[in-house]
Amino acid sequence: MLRYIGKSIASKQSLLNQSTLVMTKNSSFCTTSSMLESKNTSNYQNILTEKRGRVAIITLNRPKALNALSDGLIGEINIAMKQFQDDKDIGSIIITGSEKAFAAGADIKEMEKKTFADAYNGDMLAQWHDLTTIRKPIIAAVNGYALGGGCELAMMCDIIIAGDKAVFGQPEIKLGTIPGCGGTQRLIRAIGKSKAMELILTGNNLNAVDAERAGLVSRVVPAEELINEALKTADKIASYSQVTVSMCKETVNSAYELNLREGIKFERRIFHSTFATHDQKEGMNAFVEKRSPSWLNK
Ligand SMILES: C=C(C)C(=O)SCCNC(=O)CCNC(=O)[C@H](O)C(C)(C)COP(=O)(O)OP(=O)(O)OC[C@H]1O[C@@H](n2cnc3c(N)ncnc32)[C@H](O)[C@@H]1OP(=O)(O)O
Question: Where are the transmembrane segments (predicted)?
Answer without folding.
Answer: none
